[in-house]
Amino acid sequence: MTGVPGPTAAREQLPEATLCHLVDGDRTLLIRKQRGVGQGNLVGPGGKLEAGETPRECVVREVREEVGIDVADPERAGAFAYWADDWSAVVHVFRATAYEGTPTASAEADPVWVPVDDVPFDEMWATDRTWLPTVLDGGTFRGTFVFHADEPRYVDVDRGVNVPERGDVSATGRR
Ligand SMILES: Nc1ncnc2c1[nH]c(=O)n2[C@H]1C[C@H](O)[C@@H](COP(=O)(O)OP(=O)(O)OP(=O)(O)O)O1
Question: Which PROSITE patterns match (predicted)?
Fold first, then answer.
């Protein structure tokens, strides 16, 4: 497949959402999604941007709403553009290591701590295994994915690059 835009171009066309991957020592926080996009999957907490919100503001709000904790240091780890039959988005991915509170279930999410070195990828979006190890390891990435009938049909991941926030060209350096 050719002509599939990456996340920087796609965010002019698609709704935007966020994910937070919180690392606490040798464990990382996932949620069992109780409703909506990806229901039943294990995913990082996150959700759709609201009007006027930056991705960083969104990820802090969504983590608080979904699992009742405050992440103190969300660091931009990358982004992916994603097309599926019923929902497409640019998803901004953050890594965090500091938080306050105890993860608590909500109507949308059941929190689950899993070992960093034994993430249950078979219960996650199929493409998460292509980029999440990089994020948990402190790296950065940019991805483009096309799904059909819940199966990935196009997968492109570039590691060691980052996708800047709008107007922030300093965030493009390789790591
Ligand atoms: N491919 C893939 N892998 C991992 N995570 C995701 C994807 N595609 C996705 O859309 N997502 C994530 C990104 C977001 O965190 C959620 C989708 O947002 P959602 O939870 O539906 O948004 P909310 O605003 O919290 O929900 P509602 O209030 O609209 O119900 O999936």
Answer: NUDIX, NUDIX_BOX
| CA 123 to each of CA 42, 80, 88, 95, 145: distance values in angstroms, whole numbers, following the listed order | 6, 19, 20, 20, 18
Checking if the pLDDT of 45 tops 50, the result is yes
pLDDT tens digits, one per residue of 90-126:
999 999 999 999 999 999 999 999 999 999 999 999 9
In ligand 1, the atom with minimum distance to the C-alpha of 145 is 1
The count of residues in the chain is: 175
Band the pLDDT of 166: cuts 50, 70, 90: low
Ligand 1 binding residues, C-beta < 6 A:
17-19, 36-38, 43, 46-48, 62, 82, 89, 91, 125, 127-128
**Residues 6+ away with beta carbon under 8 Å from 5:** 13, 81, 144
How many domains in the chain? 1
Domain assignment present for 39: yes
Looking up residue 156, the CATH number of its domain turns out to be: 3.90.79.10
Q: ipTM value of the model?
A: 0.95
